[in-house]
Amino acid sequence: MCSAERTAAAGASLPEQADAVLRQLRLIAEESGSSLENLLKVTLYVTDLAALPELCTTLFRHYGAHLPASSVVQVQGLFTDTINIEIEAIIALP
Prior knowledge:
Blueprint: H1 3-9, H2 14-31, E1 39-46, H3 52-63, E2 69-74, E3 85-91
Parallel strand pairs: 1-2
Antiparallel strand pairs: 1-3
Helix pairs in contact: 1-2, 2-3
């Protein structure tokens, strides 16, 4: 995530942070000639599973009809207390 996006997302809700990360993934995929339709697998590390329903809404909005294989792992904490999600993604490139 670029530093401006990271700064804007830090401290936001988990779904808002996921939205920021997925926007960055979309940009990275497009810059590489791909798209989120080529997203093969995601692993989501989250600090709070209670936010899962809202997170799913955010994910489905970005995924559209293409649902990649995914795992959700609850963790005690991430890089800083203001970050609530980390997303590891595998995207097929052309």
